[in-house]
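Need a sequence for this fold. Nothing fancy.
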């Protein structure tokens, strides 16, 4: 068992849709600890840094536009196997393929507005936590 930190972010569609409270409850229900939490609108530079691996893909420009379109909820979440536990809780990238009971399966419909971001590895988590929480 490794105690890890991960970076989660409730995306603009879910914040605007009034789903923040229910999503946070699911994170808390796992037993993981929300150590930092902040409502903010990402700058284009922050968005580009977070999604650098996707630069050049067909959806990149619309992804940056979308993620900077309104406030997000940034979270630093910690606990045993936090990265994998959160990815499982979120469900797969496309909400249409996400099972009921997952955050994307229950709160999302479209891949381009898929409710929540979560770091995909311990290395990504370290980088993303550094980007969003100094
Ligand atoms: P992840 O968020 O599950 O890690 P990634 O493949 O890292 O998925 O993609 C990052 C984000 O880019 C996704 O969460 C989604 O918002 C967006 N995205 C990924 N694939 C597509 C696509 O095919 N069309 C539109 N948006 C996409
Ligand atoms: Mg990813």
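Here you go.
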């Amino acid at each position: 068992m490794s105690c890890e930190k991960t970076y989660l972010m409730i995306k603009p569609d879910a914040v605007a849709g009034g789903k923040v409270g229910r999503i946070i409850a699911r994170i808390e229900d796992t037993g993981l600890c929300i150590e930092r939490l902040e409502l903010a609108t990402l700058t284009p530079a922050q968005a580009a840094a977070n999604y650098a691996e996707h630069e050049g893909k067909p959806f990149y420009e619309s992804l940056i536009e979308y993620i900077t379109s309104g406030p997000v909820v940034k979270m630093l979440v910690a606990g045993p196997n936090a990265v994998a536990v959160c990815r499982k809780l979120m469900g797969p990238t496309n909400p249409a393929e996400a099972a009921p009971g997952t955050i994307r399966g229950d709160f999302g419909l479209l891949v381009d507005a898929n409710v929540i971001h979560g770091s995909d590895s311990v290395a990504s988590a370290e980088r993303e936590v550094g980007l969003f929480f100094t």
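For context: The radius of gyration is 14 Å.
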